[in-house]
């Protein structure tokens, strides 16, 4: 399984995958000052929420590349032939996706925080929230990718499937900026629930897509 | 777990439609089974059931110990990786000693030794097929499942395929091949769907 994780992490960074996520994230974060205007006090107030919304949208970007190519190329078949459980494969993919997408996103958040005039304390809460919330987001992305693997126009549907389920992460993540430790605990709980449950959903979806 | 592939009164359905039923045979170490039949009759589905990927409608399949290797339409090799890196990924998952040497030997077996450092995406269809065959050879599995193994292969590659199958059965392996075209292999059991 470490081989699979390593392979997926590399393919996540290769071909500019991570760069694309970061670029999209920063673009969304930059759009808000243009839309709201250069009112630093206002920007600083909404900035944390903006970063979370941008992170959610950026997390959608790689969904199409997470499972569908492996299904098409027969990689999932070969893993199953070797006795790999699809839930374990999904868990490995979740970890690999998190490693490929969370660290660049958290680095980019520092830049976005600067653009939005966030205070150091707020930025710290945003980063702590992202650290706790992105595993849940990664699990959700893999589950969505598995559910939509083999479907046509999966990219357009992915947002409709994934974003409603990510709303709790958004609420508690953005809420932690004002709510502090209590918000972070709720965020961690939501994230944990997704990380624990989503691989089984993803595994079942991959299994049925293979048959 | 026995060392034979035992198929008893097997029926397989796909999408609610029964593809075939009452398939039965026993393949012992050294046996080669060639499954023939027209397109769409369920040859690939049969092989997928043997690989543990398909659902059994009725009957039973008892697989031999010692692992299973499947070669089908999908080559399952990372397009961006070099041939040997892509094969090594699977050889490591298969376990066993020294995947690097096993992969190198398998590449020589299918005459792809010169292309070991070429990215998979640059291979031709026939070369990709041979790389997939090398994945099966390097796996060290006892049961080989080959779906249309002759597709896209030239005459020299067909000879090498026959030689590899002969070597595998000589080492106590079992080969099940599905094909719609005749294979010039000696001493095979035919199963017609």
From TrEMBL, chain A:
Known function: Required for the export of heme to the periplasm for the biogenesis of c-type cytochromes.
A GO BP entry: cytochrome c biosynthetic process
Gene Ontology MF term list: heme transmembrane transporter activity
GO CC aspect terms: plasma membrane
Keywords, in A-Z order: Cell inner membrane, Cell membrane, Cytochrome c-type biogenesis, Membrane, Transmembrane, Transmembrane helix, Transport
Membrane topology: Multi-pass membrane protein
Coarse class of the protein's main subcellular location: membrane
Organism: Sphingomonas palmae
Family annotation (InterPro entries): Cyt_c_biogenesis_CcmB (IPR003544), Cyt_c_CcmB_bac (IPR026031)
Pfam family, one: CcmB
Keyword field contains tRNA processing: no
Family: Belongs to the CcmB/CycW/HelB family.
Record carries keyword Phosphoprotein: no
Entry protein name: Heme exporter protein B
UniProt-annotated location(s): Cell inner membrane
Domain of life where this protein originates: Bacteria
Transmembrane segments: 12-36, 42-61, 95-116, 128-149, 156-180, 186-206
TrEMBL record, chain B:
Residue ranges occupied by any ABC transporter domain in the UniProt entry: 5-193
PROSITE patterns in the cross-refs: ABC_TRANSPORTER_1, ABC_TRANSPORTER_2
Pfam family, one: ABC_tran
Keywords, in A-Z order: ATP-binding, Cytochrome c-type biogenesis, Membrane, Nucleotide-binding, Translocase, Transport
Any one GO molecular-function label of the UniProt entry: transmembrane transporter activity
Keyword flag Glycoprotein: no
Alphabetical list of InterPro entries matching this protein: AAA+_ATPase, ABC_transporter-like_ATP-bd, ABC_transporter-like_CS, ABC_transptr_haem_export_CcmA, P-loop_NTPase
Single GO biological process annotation from the record: cytochrome complex assembly
Taxonomy, superkingdom: Bacteria
NCBIfam families: ccmA
This protein's name: Heme exporter protein A
Organism whose genome encodes this protein: Sphingomonas palmae
